[in-house]
Design goal:
alpha+beta; Glutamine Phosphoribosylpyrophosphate, subunit 1, domain 1; 5-stranded antiparallel sheet; 5 helices; disordered N terminus
């Protein structure tokens, strides 16, 4: 019996994540499916991470890379706050992530959305595995992102109230789940505004999703 020389399939998030700016808030949403090749390895994958009290990030790509980078960003953000006496800004944290990814030049297989609220208001940035940084009013990552972007492109409006922004984020991810095999199982949503980071409860998400 021959032994396979192929390396084991890497655990990946598959993924659809979205970020959009509402009126005085930022919404981050994602599915929860993680895959290993054709196997659904997890139905409860965490793809939105709280970095500080007013900044969050989504992940798409290698789970191990993502967990390592999120831990690093949390630690660096806390160190910044201790040294400077104030929280790190959204743009500064995004630039830190960009520098890490650029120096690695493809060693980390990861796309992130960084969203948060500071004295410049709500912001969201797209970053990729070589360190690109693209600010926008809405964006998406992952295998389901083309479908999600179609929904966002068609329905996004400036100054969306928080409730409407949450609903749009859920609809964008739900549409991707319907068409992308690597996205699925459930939806996570976090909202960040001047009052801080809030995780939307499952009951509220499911009610909107079913509508």
């Amino acid at each position: 019996m021959e032994h396979s020389t192929q390396p084991p399939a890497e655990l990946k998030t598959g993924t659809t994540t979205v970020g959009l700016i509402g009126k005085d808030c930022i919404v981050l949403a994602s599915d929860q499916r993680a895959t290993m090749g054709f196997l659904i390895a997890s139905k409860t994958a965490q793809k939105i991470f709280k970095i500080t009290d007013r900044i969050g990030a989504t992940i798409a790509g290698s789970v191990a890379d993502a967990q390592n980078i999120m831990d690093l960003l949390r630690a660096e953000s806390k160190l910044f706050e201790i040294q400077r006496g104030r929280p790190i800004r959204v743009k500064a944290l995004t630039r830190l992530l960009s520098n890490i990814m650029f120096q690695a030049r493809g060693a980390y297989m990861l796309q992130c959305l960084v969203g948060g609220y500071d004295d410049e208001g709500p912001q969201v940035f797209y970053t990729d595995y070589i360190g690109s940084v693209l600010p926008d009013v809405f964006t998406a990552t992952g295998s389901g992102s083309p479908v999600a972007l179609g929904v966002l492109e068609a329905e996004y409006k400036e100054d969306l109230p928080k409730k409407k922004a949450i609903e749009l984020g859920i609809r964008a991810v739900a549409a991707a789940i319907e068409r992308d095999a690597a996205s699925g199982n459930s939806i996570l949503v976090s909202v960040i505004d001047k009052d801080g980071y809030q995780v939307i409860d499952k009951e509220t998400i499911m009610k909107i999703w079913k509508q």
